[in-house]
Design a protein that fits this description.
The chain is α/β, with parallel strands linked by helices. The protein is 23% helix and 25% strand. Helix 1 links the parallel strand 5 and strand 6.
Length: 334
């Protein structure tokens, strides 16, 4: 059962099943609701939370198959089972088991560690692991999440004490909701852009309350502003303003400048390099396929650990159940 990387994403050859297809498909597993992983499919398989958030963004799908973590679902001759992925609310990994018992895990985007707004990622045992490698380079090693949020909260307080309005920049889905709850837990009050507030309301409806006021054009005393990392969404503020972006790219010298911010904090909802190595070993996979980001670098690091690993590109077809090694061109960056 080979897998091929097409313009629409990753697909099981000989099957109608796609993984996070970026174009409308007959049927796709949707790992989470970020825009680069979703489309208006005829049939979408995912968690209730992911499907709700996805349809908020792309509209209703003809058939939404909502699965709980650990629930098994039969599709064609395959058995599908979902596992928590951290990352954002509802994010899931899928384990596909074929009739002969061979197990393939597709992680989608994932992150280990504790979240306030998402289930902690689990490690599904498998024979073949297909793992995202956005930060799959040895230079990406994130500090503990709680430590970074302590630093973010301290920075916000210092700005407020100086009479400066702190504005934090984060993606509308996932990182914003986690950041709100982390800051509220540290005694701060947050007002959020419409797009962030709308998704936060969905989180609350799905059983994960988010405590932020919708920004109505004016700040209240002591509030921290939270906005998407796009200049057109930033408010006009009377008086001095300081901006900080929350991103894993904060480890790069251009991390703040790319977002037009004064500084950047390394807040990521992706796994870093050591976490990716540890995760791959823990699955027990005999073969690891890396894709996206630093796929080549992660595959090389895994091979140094004694694992059979290779990177996938848009032009490469892989037979996940074959021992042949195919030379791979450099993986696409995103």
């Amino acid at each position: 059962m080979p897998v091929e990387w097409l313009k629409g994403g990753l697909k099981l050859q000989g099957s109608a099943l796609w993984f996070d297809a970026r174009r409308q498909s007959e049927v796709s597993f949707v790992s989470h609701a970020h825009t680069d992983h979703i489309a208006r499919h005829a049939r979408a398989i995912g968690t209730k939370e992911t499907l709700t958030l996805m349809q908020h963004r792309v509209g209703e799908v003809a058939e939404a198959v909502a699965l709980a973590y650990g629930e098994r679902f039969s599709f064609e001759a395959l058995s599908l089972e979902l596992f928590p992925a951290g990352h954002v609310l509802g994010a899931a990994q899928v384990r596909v088991t074929r009739p002969d018992g061979h197990r393939v895990v597709y992680t989608g985007d994932f992150s280990p560690g504790e979240f306030l707004t998402a289930r902690r990622a689990e490690v599904p045992a498998c024979d073949t692991l297909v793992v995202e490698s956005t930060f799959g380079h040895p230079k990406y090693r994130f500090p503990p999440r709680a430590q970074v949020y302590d630093e973010v909260a301290d920075w916000c307080r210092r700005q407020l004490e100086r009479g400066v309005r702190p504005l934090l920049l984060a993606y509308s889905l996932g990182k914003s909701q986690e950041s709100i709850q982390q800051l509220v837990a540290r005694g701060l009050r947050v007002t959020a852009h419409d797009s962030i507030h709308a998704i936060s309301s969905l989180y609350s409806a799905l059983g994960v309350p988010i405590d932020a006021r919708r920004f109505d054009g004016a700040f209240r005393e002591g509030e921290v502003g939270l906005f998407p990392p796009f200049a057109r969404h930033r408010p006009r503020v009377e008086g001095p303003v300081a901006t900080a972006v929350l991103t894993g790219w904060a480890l790069e010298p251009w991390g703040a400048g790319r977002a037009g911010a004064d500084l950047a904090f390394p807040v990521s909802d992706h796994a870093d390099y050591p976490s990716l190595l540890e995760f791959a070993r823990a699955t027990g996979a005999r073969e690891v396929i890396t894709l996206f980001g630093f796929a080549e670098e992660l595959a090389a690091g895994l091979r140094k650990e004694g694992l059979f690993a290779r990177a996938v590109s848009e032009r490469l077809q892989l037979d996940l159940f074959d021992a042949r090694v195919t030379p791979t061109p450099r993986a696409r960056r995103r």
